[in-house]
Amino acid sequence: MYTDDEIARYFNAIDRHFTERSKFNSIQFPVMFRLFCCCGTRLNETLCIWVRDINLREGTIRLTETKNHRERFIVMGDDLLDLMVYYADKCFYLLSENDYIFNSGRGTRYSKDRIYSVHRETLQYAGIPFYGDKEGLRIHDWRHTFAVRSFKQLIDSGMDMYTSLPILSTYLGHKNIYATEKYLRLTMSIYPYIEEKCRDQIESVFGSGEEGDVR
Known about the structure:
single chain; 215 residues; hpI Integrase, Chain A; three-stranded antiparallel β-sheet; 9 helices
């Protein structure tokens, strides 16, 4: 989980650090990493977004190369959509609809290793410790952060668990709600008042359920 302070420092670093080094990267990386943070996308499915998948009018992105082969749409908030419109205006005229929106400038998509390197460099520049891939903070921890914050927002808005859990599970591209259960329990461990609200519902749904894949 990224704290509010770490989120602010991280994006301050990625907005300023790469701006100084490469004009092209200064446009791509702020968009890419905000997709991780604001939409909870996985690394591979983010790198595999094509120009044709972007709908700027509706503010949606279609994810086609996904885990579990579950094609889905994600919705961009106003700030992220404004940034994507700016990015499209600056870069999409160079691309065809069959090109990846994030690419190395040679027509090929970025490798995962390249993005891991950018992430570690950003952590260092932001003064955030990096303990290794199994300890964090990892790129995939943006997805965990998104899921927890989203579930909290749904509950705080007055939505009950029976309604909010399938919504979040579908948005994240999970096979079933059991794969989303760990996010729910993590949310409750961080925000005890949510556990008070949802305890009975949790036991009725997951008391004898199977354990899912949280990735």
